[in-house]
Structure formats: structure tokens, C-alpha cells
Amino acid sequence: MEQPLITVETSRHDDVLLVRVAGEVDLDTVPQVRAVLRGPAVAVVLDLGGVTFFGSAGIKLLVDARREFGALAVVATARAVLHPLQVTGLARHLPLCRSSDAALDHVRRMSRQAG
Q: What is the pLDDT of residues 40-85, one digit of tens each?
């Protein structure tokens, strides 16, 4: 049986939407991530800890998410994600966290400061 190119799981933590992504984030798979981001959320955590490939469509996804959500944090620990973020300079403009718990804490603080 063939493995899917991407898996996307969501969970709610109060007003925060946690989206866990594993596999390849590219032009063919990014619509699956965008689909779960269409729901109502005050804050979003994108956990990309399981991502093995992160293409330009993933970069665009993060730029759009940064514009759309007042509070956003990204879990990025693998070179497959960190390298493109650093090369494009996007790493300087996103809160990058080492764990989902740290990212959840970060967006909660951002939400409290904004409110």
C-alpha cells in the first residue's frame, strides 16, 4: 500500500487551531493544508515537524497565513523546512518554535496582547 504524500491533522486548543503536517508540502499537496485553515480561528499553530520536503508553495502558504491570522506560530525543527525559510528570509518574519507546546504558548501570548 502506497503512503500518502502528506497527512494533515487538526485539533483545537481553546481558540487556537493546531495543524500538524507530515510529508511533502508542495504545489500538489498544499491545498490540503489550505483547506483546514479556512475554518474560524483566532490563532493558528502550524506544526511542520513531520515535513520532509518544503517547496515554494509551502513558503506561499506561510506568507498567506501570516497575513490572514493575527496570531500565528510555526513549529519547524527539520532542515527540510528551516533551510527554505532561512534562504528566503521568511524565518526573520515568523515566530519559529521547537515544539507545539511552545508555539501554543506563543500564540496565546500574542492573542492576549492584541486583545
A: 788 999 999 999 999 999 999 999 999 998 899 999 999 999 999 9
> Which of these, 80, 79, 81, lies nearest to 46 by C-alpha position?
81
- C-alpha distances (whole Å) from 102 to each of 26, 63, 83 are 26, 21, 21
Q: What's the confidence (pLDDT) of residue 1?
A: 64
Which superfamily does CATH assign the domain made up of 6-114 to? STAS domain (3.30.750.24)
- Sketch the domain layout of the chain as residue ranges: 6-114
How far apart CA 39 and CA 93 sit, in angstroms, is 24
